[in-house]
Give the backbone structure.
Amino acid sequence: MLIQAIYRHAVLPAYESLYQRRHTLRYLRQLDRSQWLSAAEIQTQQFASLKRIVEHAERHCPYFQRSWSALGLSSADLRNLDDFRRWPLTEKKQIRENRLEMRATDIQRPLLAKSTGGSTGTPLQFDLDMGSHERRWAAMLRGYGWAGGTPGTKQFHLWGAPLEAQPLKRRLKDRIFNLVQRRRMVNSFHLSDETVPDILRELNRYRPDVIVAYTGAIFQFARSLAERNLHPFSPKSIIVGAEKLHGFQRELIESVFRCRVFETYGSREFMLIGAECSEHRGLHVTSEQLLVEILNDDGQPTPAGQAGNVVITDLFNYGMPFIRYVNGDQALAGFDQCTCGRGLPLLREVRGRRLDAIRTPDGKLVPGEFFPHLFKDFPAVRQFQVVQPAQDRLELRVVLLPDMKDSDRSRILKIISETVGQHVQLAWQPVQDIPLTRTGKHMVVVSHVPATSDPASGTADKSETT
Ligand SMILES: [Zn+2]
């Protein structure tokens, strides 16, 4: 505890304020207070922030000025959230085509250029201002804190690291940062059946308070340990992110590591969007800084309990406002209140990235979600990836356990064939391994058949969130 206190009150402020000149910790103190406000108070503040960013975008961002005035929209008419529903959505495509004109013309300090990974699609480049950068760091520190990962705790990160070698200056900076933050980094790209014993040894030696990991990577690690009957060091908690957490994954990870798993939801565009508190009833949304809406394909609010598209407005990125941005993820609609007493609303469940749909020659549209649903009933299929190289062909790449039965294979093929129709040829392809994307994630369904104007197909965009 003493070491934690020293880190929190001496080392971190020195690092953050002097070395980085950031206001992160001041924002963290504000967020630590505001989370306990009532839901109504948070909504009032949120709407005031919304109004300010819309006024700002209207005045200083040529793109928004032009497109809103063409629709007859004026920030003067924005009096409540219902009014805001008249504002147009922003798709990734629009950001790609209008990035420069989305930037505010009145920003003094240079903007930070960022990009999302983009696996098979084009990466998305965008900008943010320093203030927004500091605020999102603060929100992440708060969310990790709910899971026991406050600044100064010992953290073991099993996370995707850049594939390309970084320049020396950058590597040194990262090293200092990790040392100050008491972080041990293990590249999740290096996780394989062969490296599991090494990673286990490193974890057992480091004895972290918290493990922070890619959902897929820690699940794979836990499964490998369970298969070999190996028992890892048990941290106080495990924070997972970057990919959707399924119930069966949570169960296995918790039983192998003998501690609770805390789900987080974030993306490169906004950092932490939501995180679980110790009640595990859903993800508390970073409502002081983000407005999250769940909308149907026609742009209308999704009824509570149904899945819809995640649409986010960043209330503080004054450098390049994100207004009603469709991020390509799906989540269950309907925000609840938590029993922990925080006024921040709960996002019930994140369904994750909308998977590619499979379009068949006879005009059927099979949602990508069909495949994980199917394969979960066949545990001998350790991993899978469905690829549609052409409209009449589907490749089923599968990593199989030795106990895979021929009868199960036939059943899987029969079910898929009945679903996609007889005009699609199925290729069963057992493989040793399924390569991850550039940013270390697993693409479950990949269709190379171009999307038409069919609204039910979702975005054809495959850039990722991290
Ligand atoms: Zn809570």
Summary: Residues 277, 279, 284, 338, 340, 342 surround zinc ion (CB under 6 Å). The longest helix spans residues 39-60. The first strand starts at residue 112 and ends at 115. Residues 453-466 have pLDDT under 50 and may be disordered.
